[in-house]
Write a structure and sequence with these properties.
By secondary structure, this protein is an alpha/beta fold. It has a domain of 239 residues: Alpha-Beta Complex (Spore Coat Polysaccharide Biosynthesis Protein SpsA, Chain A). 50% of the residues lie in helices and 13% in strands. It contains 13 helices and 8 strands. Strands 3-2-1-4-7-6-8-5 form an 8-stranded mixed sheet. Strand 2, helix 3 and strand 3 form a beta-alpha-beta unit. Helix 11 crosses helix 12 and helix 12 crosses helix 13. The protein is globular, with a radius of gyration of 22 Å. The protein starts with a helix and ends in a 20-residue tail after the last helix. 42% of the residues are buried. The C terminus is likely disordered.
């Protein structure tokens, strides 16, 4: 087989495994695990003291709704400390929070980023269980009680909640389709061993496992949860605890967010390099590489290599199957471009969701990579604009 064909088929395999094969293989392994060990036992009720830490930067427009949602959560009030940290906010967010005496407010005028804010907030936390969530999300009423029951297992170091994107009016709500797919993978990951990287919208950790995060870190939630994994603990997944969030306000806003996540992903790969050692971390390393690392590295690169190799093979008249494959790629990218044009016009066409968002995410990865190597991605707290949503808890 020629080098060009090897590149083509290797790239196709990497793409298949990254987005489909990993999930299928993990699902099969979960089935085998359950056959050998039997079904998981129900978790008992467990209500330890909890600190709910909420970072809020210039969230005056939504902060009252967030506070009311938080105060309505189903958990014993004497076991729940609510901490809002609003460092750098200039729109009156701290003044609104001060109207609620049961809430602890931490505020400094200086804006040093979300990571620095969380480190400072954790200095005030005494509860053994900490839950982090964003100011622009709403939690379901039983979110905390559903999270804490996982801590009855001493090997559980953290719990990832589920992110749900509210229905929006524009094509930017395609984001919700992606998160449904991600949530399904997280269920499989948790059943196999551990969630690999919690989402900052809602995640929890044992206080004893929290280590101050370097101020330059972009994806604090990802680093915090995986460092708990590296300490020998698993991260559980709790779909019964979810954070509802409006979709991005526009395609450019969503792209900006994806680029930042990609830049943070490359930063995380460097910082968490020991996790790539499968001889040391075993199953965790397999999950981390299969679910996360490949999507930020070899998968986007394979898209380019597969297309270029395919064009070369067709030019060399290698055979009809290569011509068909090239036509399919052209159609896929044409559908992506059409989906993008319709998205800019706030039109939703379900048939174009997958090619559009797939290409959109991978383009953001390339942009994020160049931003990372040029060190142009700041870790300073960036507030994303969100669209009006039509769905509520």
């Amino acid at each position: 087989m020629s080098i060009t064909k090897t590149i083509l088929f290797s790239g196709l395999f990497i793409l298949f495994f990254s987005y489909i094969g990993y999930g299928i293989l993990s699902w099969i392994l979960v089935k085998i695990k359950r056959l050998l060990s039997g079904p998981a036992k129900p978790l008992p009720s467990f209500t330890p003291p909890v600190a709910l830490v909420i970072a809020a930067y210039n969230e005056a427009a939504v902060i009252r709704g967030k506070i009311e949602n938080t105060l309505a959560l189903n958990y014993p009030p004497d076991l729940l400390d609510i901490i809002f940290i609003t460092d750098g906010s200039t729109d009156g967010t701290p003044d609104i929070i001060r109207e609620y005496p049961s809430i602890q407010l931490l505020h400094e005028p200086a804006r040093r980023g979300k990571t620095a804010a969380l480190n400072r907030a954790m200095e005030q936390v005494t509860a053994p269980v900490v839950i982090f969530c964003d100011a622009n999300t709403l939690l379901n009423r039983d979110a905390i009680i559903n999270i804490t029951r996982h801590y009855s297992d001493p090997l559980t170091g953290g719990v990832a909640g589920e992110k749900k994107v509210m229905a929006g009016n524009g094509a930017e709500s395609t984001e919700g389709v992606y998160w449904k797919y991600e949530s399904a993978l997280k269920r499989i990951d948790a059943a196999l061993y551990s969630v690999v990287g919690a989402a900052g919208e809602l995640f929890s950790i044992r206080r004893e496992l929290y280590r101050p995060v370097e101020p330059e870190v972009i994806l604090d939630d990802f680093i915090i949860s995986l460092r708990a994994n590296m300490s020998g603990y698993r991260i559980a997944y709790e779909p019964g605890a979810y954070a509802m969030e409006a979709p991005s306000a526009s395609i450019p806003e969503e792209y900006k967010r994806k680029v930042r996540i990609a830049a943070g992903g490359f930063q995380s790969i460097v910082m968490l390099a020991p996790l790539l050692n499968i001889f040391r971390y075993g199953l965790l390393s397999f999950q981390y590489t299969g679910h996360r690392v490949l999507r930020w590295t070899l998968a986007p690169l394979s898209l380019v290599l597969v297309l270029v190799a395919n064009i070369i093979l067709v030019a060399q008249q290698a055979g009809g199957v290569y011509t068909l494959l090239l036509i399919l790629q052209i159609c896929f990218y044409a559908a992506s471009a059409l989906g993008y044009l319709l998205a800019l016009r706030k039109r939703k066409v379900k048939l174009l969701y997958i090619p559009f968002y797939f290409s959109f995410m991978n383009l953001a990865v390339f942009h994020g990579f160049f931003r990372f190597i040029r060190k142009r991605q700041s870790a300073v707290w960036v507030k994303a604009e969100r669209a009006p949503a039509t769905q509520r808890i």
